[in-house]
Prior knowledge:
Blueprint: E1 13-14, E2 17-18, E3 23-28, E4 32-35, E5 41-50, E6 54-59, E7 65-67, E8 73-80, E9 83-92, E10 98-108, E11 113-120, E12 126-132, E13 138-139, E14 149-151, E15 160-166, E16 171-181, E17 185-194, E18 199-200, E19 206-211, E20 216-224
Parallel strand pairs: 4-10
Antiparallel strand pairs: 1-2, 3-5, 5-8, 6-7, 6-9, 9-10, 11-15, 11-17, 12-13, 12-16, 14-15, 16-20, 17-19, 18-20
Amino acid sequence: xxxxxxxxxxxxxxxxxxxxxxxxxxxxxxxxxxxxxxxxxxxxxxxxxxxxxxxxxxxxxxxxxxxxxxxxxxxxxxxxxxxxxxxxxxxxxxxxxxxxxxxxxxxxxxxxxxxxxxxxxxxxxxxxxxxxxxxxxxxxxxxxxxxxxxxxxxxxxxxxxxxxxxxxxxxxxxxxxxxxxxxxxxxxxxxxxxxxxxxxxxxxxxxxxxxxxxxxxxxxxxxxx
Length: 225
């Protein structure tokens, strides 16, 4: 299943002069259906970009990820959830002109999962998502597969990271964000989603300032039944 292809949403004109409108086409993955298998489904998103100055990856309700454009391409990896996954790449060109392309992937399987995602915009910053599990172990950039899977951006620059655990064990999950490279303070968006009936409210999330005097920020805890 696939939406707009090479479509331009806005062509900006100013003072009688015009500029080339941005274009975007997702080459990979293709839309359609995927089995969940035994673990999280990880996909690589590859898109061709023209006349664009910035690019963003949006997957369902996860915080938007700013993706670097290299030689007319963007590449990023992301973890998909059970159910419908809308993968959108949005680009912006000169004068604020915008274009987008989207594919839809359906992942089959039971929907009992814990998903935690972060996103930020500052290209001078590298942030790490860290998850403390009920067993007392931490899932980090260095240990991404102890309980659940952490998909890290692995590079400096604006981006995002996602933690996904299928059939998560009951107990308390602690969420924190660490600034690995930052000269100042950056705004980090955090979103937590968990299967209905598995959690005790409240669910932490929102926007947090990380870096400077606060290189590590405790976002909060999720308690699962």
